[in-house]
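Two proteins were folded this term; both appear here.
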Amino acid sequence: MDNSKTDWAKAVRPLIKKYKDEPHPLHAKNLYQMLVMVVLSAQTTDNLINQLAPDLFKAYPNMAKLAAALPEDLHPLISKVRSFGNKSKWLIDIAKQIKKDAAIPTTMDELVKLPGIGRKSANVIMRYAGLKAEGIVVDLHTIRVANRLGIVATEDPKKIEKEMMEILPQKEWDAGMCMSFLGRDACRPTNPLHGECLMNKVCQFCLNNTD
């Protein structure tokens, strides 16, 4: 199948319609919690972050409380998180810079200046806040789904985001996070559910692997 002529702006609309209101798998209750959880979640499962979140936020319910802590104060609460030593330093640095929840940045440029926050994390935070997208969320699920669809042909997250931003109009940029949800539901790493996938009519991988 040649997907070079696919109208992707049109093709992703059903995907966005299905998942646009789907809450992020990180169970944050406010923007402060989402920022903290996103920093912690790099190379760590969302489930683990959700499990430790209640105790963490009971001890540090807001940015002001977090700013008054030392990195080692966080260690007992996040020791199961990969690279928890670095992440505890990043979170304290962020808290000391921001000082209060109301001052959490709301633009891509400001967010990526914070330690431990790259474009993917910033995109997730901005989506949670309901802000206008300035980029496209690209996680492991998005990488798999975008390549299987044939909208991109690279495993590099930065290249995927750049290419998809060029292919899709800004109003369709939630497609990245929606692809992530699709990757969890149907487009799994093994045994993908082709018959249940709403993208199966435009998916290069699906059409090449089903009768």
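Next, the second protein.
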Amino acid sequence: MKKRVAILISGGGSNMVSLVDSMGEDHPAMPVLVLANGAEAGGLEKARARGVETAVVDHRPHKGDRASFEEALHARICEAQPDILCLAGFMRVLTEGFVRRWDGRMINIHPSLLPKYTGLNTHARALAAGDTEAGCSVHEVTAELDAGPLLGQARVPVEPGDTPATLAARVLAQEHILYPQVLRRFAAGDKTPVFLP
């Protein structure tokens, strides 16, 4: 029985596309929902074009009330009955209460070599620190931001003259390779970390 996967996005959904496109006939998982926290998210149309059900739970009407937003989010996700949640550029920090409901079933991709540079502006921070390499990480989601068990990493050399934008573009290309590999293993019950050169 294939695992059912819901993917949460906030923007263009390029990582969502890489995940959906990887879930072919031989994959242990299948996409059942792409959900965004705003109707303007470009990834929604890409998901619809791939025949995946979409939904929007806009966070803005819940301003200042994260609990009510997360209740609405949880309720809509549950309608799709997913086994796994993939955060793919979902730009909302989730509370411990929400995370606990999906403990061991929610994964995230983050654009740094965790535990370095949790949170935002990862590429600028790597360049400011003089790092010689950057990259991306996939991890299980826990209540502590970007601190869950590591499921995979891919490394990218920092090149002379790199800007946050040029570094981000090279890291993103690796995200599109790493995340599908990790999801395939995770859906099959294998949490052994994947390390790409």
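The longest strand covers residues 29-36. The two ends are 32 Å apart (CA to CA). These notes refer to the second protein only.
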